[in-house]
Amino acid sequence: MDLEGARPCLPTLTSLRFFAALHVFGFHLVAFRILTAGSVFYKVASIGYVGVGLFFVLSGFILVYTHGERDVRAGEFWRARFPRLYLAYAFSLLVTLPWFLYAVLYTHRLSVPWAVAHLKLAMFLRIILLHAWVPPAALVCNAVSWSLSVEAFFYLLFPYLLKRFARASSARLILFGVLFWCVSLAVTTGYTGLNPDGLSRINSDAGAFWLTVVKFNPLVRLPEFLIGMAYGFHYLRVRANPKLAAPPVLGGLLGFGVVVSFSASIPYPVLHTSILAPAFAAIIYGLALQPGLPATLTLRPMVLLGDASYSFYLLHYFLLTVCYFTPRLGFRRWGASGVLLCLVLISGVSFLVYLFLEKPARVKLRGQRKPAVIRHAQACSAGETVV
């Protein structure tokens, strides 16, 4: 693997990861009815599930930034990436499993009844990261883990996709990004028009079979990752002036704001899975140029929050559930102060997991590699994303 001339880290994108995780956290506040329609942030938080789409686009972009235009061997890539993906995931599985089993065996409080009848299969699929491929199993146990199943599929394909993207010109890469978005839109609008589940209302509360496929299946989510890859290669080829960073960032934020404003009028599958991918790609591309304006994103505390965002994402749903369903905590009566306290608690736990589990494991993995690989990983680790 040719790793000479390692690329510098991108702290702005590391910090962006925290905001993506925070957006997903906001959606779960809405799902638990902690944030109501009268709340200040309700409109934005109500579509917080799109934060996962930002992770997918960012993942494609950063993997290309880290490995693009280099000789990447599939086996070496997988050995480097999958342990990092799986370690924190395994920890979250151990933490959430007792709560899940208690809910299944004693309280029967489950949003996915299929898991009761197929408990062993559901857990096996989760352990081997294949649960997103089986619609009834996608949200079993820690619901947010479906995206790790999707990301594992991306990692599996990445070494082969990298070689094909590397042959494309800058103009063709832009075209690829547009085509991938059109494919994603075709799937989601096609589902909306055909409504194969026969739903009277297609929304986030519907757990129908084909809607679950559109939302969580790795093949359906693949275009978002490919968009990130396409514009990641374009970034490497062009390397525009940082002074030109503002238009894509502002344009992406404007697109996001428009979608938030009209979210009630946009079909749910389109909103959930496809519509915001170009806006996310524009924001990522602009921030990667290291503009001078969002200096807050380069501050060490923000970068640390970004580093801990993987653990935050994996654990927040479980910890939020514990806070919500433990009457003695009185969480539901605390209002905004309770939400803030819960956010601080989850952030603190996530940072500890990052500091004492993720980071030491990453250092140990680096120690097992060749010196060139170590230099390259250290240069780019702050910008990597695993969800």
Please provide a brief summary of the model.
The protein is an all-alpha fold.
What does this entry look like structurally?
- This protein has one domain (11-383).
- Helices cover 69% and strands 0% of the residues.
- It has 17 helices and no strands.
- It is globular, with a radius of gyration of 20 Å.
- The chain starts with 10 loop residues before the first helix and ends in a 7-residue tail after the last helix.
- 45% of the residues are buried.
- Mean pLDDT is 87; it is low at 1-5 and 370-383.
Q: What key phrases describe this protein's structure?
A:
387 residues, mainly alpha, globular, 69% helix
List the helices and strands and how they pair.
Layout: H1 11-31, H2 42-45, H3 50-67, H4 74-107, H5 114-117, H6 119-127, H7 146-166, H8 170-194, H9 209-216, H10 218-238, H11 246-261, H12 268-273, H13 277-288, H14 300-307, H15 309-325, H16 336-367, H17 371-380
Helix pairs in contact: 1-3, 1-14, 1-15, 3-7, 3-10, 3-13, 4-7, 4-15, 4-16, 7-10, 8-10, 10-13, 11-13, 15-16
